[in-house]
Amino acid sequence: MTTRQHRSASAYAATHPSRRQWLAKALPWLGAGVALALAPQLSRAATATATPVEVWKDPNCGCCHDWIAHMEANGFSVTIHDTGNNAVRARLGLPQKLGSCHTALVGGYLVEGHVPASDVRALLQQKPKALGLTVPGMPVGSPGMDGAVYGDRRDPYDVLLVAHDGSTRIFKSYRKKAST
Q1: Cα torsion through 87, 91, 95, 99, rounded to 10
Q2: H-type helices in the chain, by residue range?
C-alpha cells in the first residue's frame, strides 16, 4: 500500500466509522430515545395508585372476603374492619331493606353488598348526587357470590343507586342467567 493510499484509507476511516464503531455510538442514543418515548407510560404507572375502599364486615364471612379480592383485583386498595356492618350502615343512613353482608365507603359513596367493581368505577366517574350503590341480599353470580361452590349459577340481580332520601333506581341490571 502506498503512502497516498494509506492516507486515503485513514481519511476514509476517520469520516466513515465501522459498523461496530457506529453501533457503539448509536446504541446509547437509541436507548435514550426508547426511554424518552416510554417515560409517560412509566410515570403514569408509577404514580397510579389504587382507589381506597373501607369495608365493614363480619369476620367469618367468606363471600365478603371474595368480594374484597374482586375489588383488589380491579385496582382498589381495601381497609377491612371485621366488626360487622349494621352500625355503620345505620350511621350512613342506608335503609335496612337495602342491606347486605358488608358495607363499604369509597370516594364519599356507600357501597353495600356485592356490587361489581366496574359499577363502583362508573359511580366514581359519574359522581351522581346520591348515597351510593347497593345490591340487596346476596345474589348468586354477583362478585363474591360467584365461586366454584356455586357452579355456573347466575341469578339475575340489579345494582341500585340509592338517593339521600332512601329512594332507589336501577343503576345497572344483570339479567342473563347462565345455562345449567
Answers
A1: -40
A2: 3-15, 19-47, 62-73, 86-92, 117-126
